[in-house]
């Protein structure tokens, strides 16, 4: 989020520079930019919540599958490990 804060500061400064260069009042332009940034930040926060929730559901499903079928899970992990080892060993 610190990158977002620095981007907001940079955009606010840029909007004031643009308004000054075009002989516009900086307040309305800056206010519009702040409003759009606020909406974008809210959308990003909403998306983050959705992604976290879906990730937790996927982790629970994987955990349940591994507990219900331990030998299948071990076999798949072994197969993937062997495949990765073969691919690395080819160099």
From TrEMBL:
Keywords in alphabetical order: Membrane, Transmembrane, Transmembrane helix
UniProt xrefs under InterPro entries:
DUF883_C, YqjD/ElaB
Which Pfam families does the record cross-reference, listed alphabetically?
A: DUF883_C
Coiled-coil boundaries: none
Q: What are the TM regions of this chain, as residue ranges? A: 71-89
According to the lineage, what is the superkingdom? Bacteria
Q: Where is the DUF883 domain?
A: 62-91
| Protein name, as recorded | DUF883 domain-containing protein
Q: Which organism is it from?
A: Paraburkholderia caffeinilytica
Q: What is the lineage of its organism?
A: Bacteria, Pseudomonadati, Pseudomonadota, Betaproteobacteria, Burkholderiales
């Amino acid at each position: 989020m610190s990158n977002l804060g620095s981007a907001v500061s940079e955009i606010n400064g840029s909007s004031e520079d643009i308004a000054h260069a075009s002989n516009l009042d900086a307040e309305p332009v800056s206010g519009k930019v702040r409003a759009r940034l606020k909406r974008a930040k809210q959308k990003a926060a909403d998306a983050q919540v959705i992604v976290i929730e879906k990730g937790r559901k996927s982790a629970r499903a994987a955990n349940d599958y591994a507990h219900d079928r331990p030998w299948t899970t071990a076999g798949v992990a072994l197969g993937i490990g062997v495949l990765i080892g073969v691919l690395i060993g080819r160099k």
